[in-house]
Amino acid sequence: MLDTARLPDHLFVSEGSYRRLDYSDLDLSAGAAWSVEVESVEVESVEVEQCRFGGTDLSTVTLDRSRVTDCVFERANLANLRATGSSLTRVRLATSRMTGFTWADGRVRDVTFDECRLDLSNWRYTGFSAAAFTNCNLTRADFSHSDLTGARFVNCDLTGAQFSHAKMAGTRFAGCVLAGIGGLTSWDGAVLSGHDLIALSYELASALGIRIEE
pTM for this one? Predict the structure, then answer.
């Protein structure tokens, strides 16, 4: 049983610890934080554990060097949330708006993303372990320099996504849209379904300057 989170008592502050709280339908975004006279939503060293975020607004919040563990996000608004050097561990995110979401130079372990809008998201220099993206919009997402060896993408739209200098040995793709992706030289060791291989062949041909005649 989770305790009900209350504002402003349970707004995130630097070096704060938040455990077993239900933040459902609360607004923790930058606008709401300013309205209750919180000095800043750019917090760091925050620990969030065993919390639920159902319909919660966390847009534009900054969580640097923070840890989010054993949490659930459903129908949440995480658009333009920014985190550097932070970790997601045993977390489920479903049907959430995450446009412009940034989780850079961090860790993502035992995390599932289901039907999330993750277009323009930034994952640069982040390591993934047992992470799965299913039915997600990842158009123009940036995975540059990330370690994706423990990631799986199923039925995702990766149009225009960037993979330059990523580690991808064992990264799995099934039923994904791969048009216009960047960093194809990093795909050594990736595992693709037959459908994805056919789609990727056109991108490989384009990258090599090969013209395909009908």
Answer: 0.91
d(CA 47, CA 196): 39
Q: Are 1-97 and 116-214 in the same CATH fold?
A: yes
Q: Which of 110, 179, 182 is nearest to 145 (CA)?
A: 182
Q: Could you tell me the pLDDT band of residue 198, with boundaries at 50, 70 and 90?
A: confident
Higher pLDDT, 162 or 194: 162
At 9, list the tokens: 């008592």
**φ, ψ of residue 62 in degrees (nearest 5):** -115, 130
CATH superfamily of 1-97: E3 ubiquitin-protein ligase SopA (2.160.20.80)
- The per-residue pLDDT for range 115-150, each reduced to its tens digit, is 999 999 999 999 999 999 999 999 999 999 999 998
Contact 182, 162 (CB under 8 A): yes
What CATH number has the domain spanning 116-214? 2.160.20
Q: Which two tokens stand for residue 29?
A: 């975004």
